[in-house]
Amino acid sequence: MAVPPAVAAPPRLPTPTPTSRPPRVAVIGAGLAGLSCAKYLSDAGFEATVYESRNVLGGKVAAWKDADGDWYETGLHIFFGAYPNMLQLFKELDIEDRLQWKQHSMIFNMKQTEQELQPGPDGKISTEPKYSRFDFPEWLPAPLNGIVAILRNNDMLTWPEKVRFAIGLLPAIIFGQKYVEECDNLSWTEWLQKQGIPKRVNDEVFLAMSKALNFIGPDDISTTVILTALNRFLQEKNGSKMAFLDGSPTERLCKPMVQHIEQRGGKVHMEKPLKKIELNEDGSVKQLIIRGVGADTADEVVTADAYVSAMPVDIFKLMLPPEWRKYESFAGLEKLVGVPVINLHLWFDCKLTDVDHLLFSRSPLLSVYADMSNTCREYENADRSMLELVLAPADKYIGRSEEEIVEVTMRELERLFPQHIGRLAARPAKLVKYHVVKTARSVYKTTKGLQGSRPTQKTPIGNFFLAGDYTLQMYLASMEGAVLSGKLAATEIVKAVETAMSKGEGAAAAFR
Ligand SMILES: Cc1cc2nc3c(=O)[nH]c(=O)nc-3n(C[C@H](O)[C@H](O)[C@H](O)COP(=O)(O)OP(=O)(O)OC[C@H]3O[C@@H](n4cnc5c(N)ncnc54)[C@H](O)[C@@H]3O)c2cc1C
Questions:
Q1: Residue 486 · residue 33 · CB < 8 Å
Q2: Domain housing 127
Q3: What's this model's pTM, rounded to 2 decimal places?
Q4: How far away, in angstroms, is 454 Cα from ligand 1 center?
Q5: Can you tell me the distance from the alpha carbon of 315 to that of 415, in angstroms, rounded to the nearest whole number?
Q6: Where are the alpha helices (DSSP H) in 183-311?
Q7: Region labeled Disordered — which residues (predicted)?
Q8: CB 384 within 8 A of CB 348
């Protein structure tokens, strides 16, 4: 598959290095950003040690196996053709075959009319779900494949609406990413109004897209987020092509990253939460205090040549030493706040659908969902469905009990699968079991005007760097953004050592 080039990996350090041993870097957090940073540092000849607070790898892609051997995950995760750094990583780890690419389409649930949901003469509802597809022809280059996909779909948008929308998009196409970044001062709804695009376009398409991208609605989301996604999807032939991982992200993606790091002399320590960042008099990092987990375990002191926070922004803010608050690049952090989201897994006693793809529910309660028994090799089941569904926006539900959340979701499924779910369903499906994973603070909420608050990977502190999807990179809050941020942090660290070496100085000078 043709994919645009990834950002170059940092070069390997020349030998001998400025210290008699490889420079040591302590990375805090074993999500995708932390693991990516440690991976690229290991490749560059550093000794990278990762400290993760939990007993599971992956952060927001973490997954667990239940007593029956079934996996459940923090989130339903989709990989896109427009993820060059992630795809490059799969290649470097030699695990490309683990990505299960789907047909190049976007599939939306169609809303059923009241009449369609009426019971038949037998008193039962046997209405099948209706889908509307945007199919991207393989034989056309971008952006023609996207334009044809949009023009061929007549279920969701009328011709005048399509034309109005295409005209509205022209500035983004002509002026590119610069225009996209400038639009951060508008919410998506405000931008649509400004471009004179009918509100129905928002209700029909962008409510679903906005919820899928950041778990919030179009009145809240920054225009930069939607235009960045549209730009990638329209400008790259396979940009919107989707893949599912063939199993749990913890096992199938994070573990190979850990193996890669450890084979190159690094380490990944689990259940080692950062308690405090201690400073030297000049404000640089002196050491990390890692909290002892368990009754008889003492706190640990960790020292290294350089330090990377790859923790989520909400936790990093709590760990930020008060002495650093004066720096402008940390000041904006207060505005970055994780958004709540809930990921549900529902196992049924029969098959609900044979769709082997992601589905946009277009439901007020839910965002995207998939029948993982069709989409994912390790969860495959020819006779029973396992729906993985994202509930968003989740502010109203995050504090509710799992039973309540499942109940409202099942009520919503009566509309999505009327023939299987509900009192009058003609072919009733039984819910066998469920898992609900709540993330009270997930990715940062990408409301308007926040681009300037995102910190760069290089910080004003010479021996301290940042990685994480919230740090400044063009892929926003996503797996691609996390992997890229880790690579960019590693690149800054390598650059600092190279600069010191070019002046004949040691590692201590590199991180001053
Ligand atoms: C429901 C859901 C669905 C999603 N769907 C998609 C999708 O389809 N496509 C996509 O690209 N992205 C998706 N995302 C977003 C994606 O998962 C994240 O952008 C990405 O995984 C973030 O990685 P990260 O490394 O920046 O942060 P995190 O994954 O949050 O990693 C931070 C790590 O730091 C650890 N940590 C925290 N505190 C400490 C401490 N004190 N000491 C040590 N370690 C600590 C955490 O335990 C965690 O492991 C989704 C997210 C969710 C929640």
A1: yes
A2: 105-237
A3: 0.96
A4: 16
A5: 39
A6: 188-194, 199-201, 207-214, 223-235, 249, 255-263
A7: 1-22
A8: yes
